[in-house]
Amino acid sequence: MRNWADYADLLKPAAELLARTHSPDSEAMKAQLWRQFAMNLSQGYFLLFQSTPDHPEFAPFENSVFLAQPNPDAVYYYAPVDGNGTYRVTGERGNAPVAGFALGNRIIGMDPLPGKGLGNHDFDDLEIDADGRFEVIFSCERPVGYRGNWLKLPEETDFILVRQFSYDWGNERDVRLAIERLDAPPIRPALTPAQVDAKLAHLFGGYARNLSQISIGAVARCAEQGFVNRFNLTSFQELGNGKDWPQAYWETVFDIAEDEALIIESELPEQRPYWNIQVIDGLWNQVDYVYRQSSLNGLQATVDADGKFRAVLAHRDPGVANWLDTGGNLYGMLIGRWYRCSGHPTPSVTRVKFADLDRHLPEGVARIGGDERAEALRRRRIGSQLRRKW
């Protein structure tokens, strides 16, 4: 084992990432990045120490604490696996509108570059009993004589990710899951000093830096492509999305002054099982969504009388129902999703002075008063906390 100071030294070069941010001379940006490093260390501990491919357990991956671009409607769980192993997942489906497994190699942060996806599986494609319970086997080949739910595990798979999207926070029943490896000894051995050393070295010298490097790069990529205050429609197929995860994303970097706002306007697909929009800061962190209305989904959003979705991104409440709170960020990102929708419209963006909002909004845009806003925020913070995240 190394001395503790040696592990701390491994983290020091991560400070160089400040120079890659949009505002490296800002004390606020420095504070955000140092905080992100602390978040990455906490998240990395779960991923590296919670379980092993021989003795897995679903660990929290992204939620209202681990904020490297989680979907605010989603809770994600991660389990390390061996692509040559045989695993059984036992659980209850719940009734969130979207729930599924994603298989992959090297979850984001494990390497300096993102890993790759190896397939997605919707829970609703499994055989589920009348009480919502199911079992599914993951393995390279279907076990001889086994006729239940089976999903192929590609040999290069090293994790199974669970993601579920909730519309009605705190009122829908969340997924409940357990995982076990069927071809490994049942008792989990203690980690050896050499194993602890390797994991700590990866945590301090790799994961904490890697995740921030990828996050900063994701914001920079969108800006460099010219999508500033202008949406880009993409599918991220290179990360594993495709026909088995039919989701289109719309993203833009927002760049506004203290006295400015953005008006977002979009047609809505005729069939739209799930959609949302979220506000992200300049480090790709989701803006606090428990105590701020920094995201909206298809249930939370108000659709105007003409069938369109309109929202206002602003630093303070504009009195519009679909306010998107920047959390004080002048620079960051907006990301939206169309999941299994019949169309993928690209929303428009209009940059205006906050004082001139009413001149640029249609007369019938949905408004909200102070008491209604307070109640909406109360429902939001209660609903978020009632969800299972840990």
TrEMBL record:
Residues annotated as domain DUF1214: 80-162, 263-339
InterPro entries: DUF1214 (IPR010621), DUF1214_C_sf (IPR037049)
Pfam families xrefs: DUF1214
Protein name: DUF1214 domain-containing protein
Lineage start: Bacteria, Pseudomonadati, Pseudomonadota, Alphaproteobacteria, Sphingomonadales
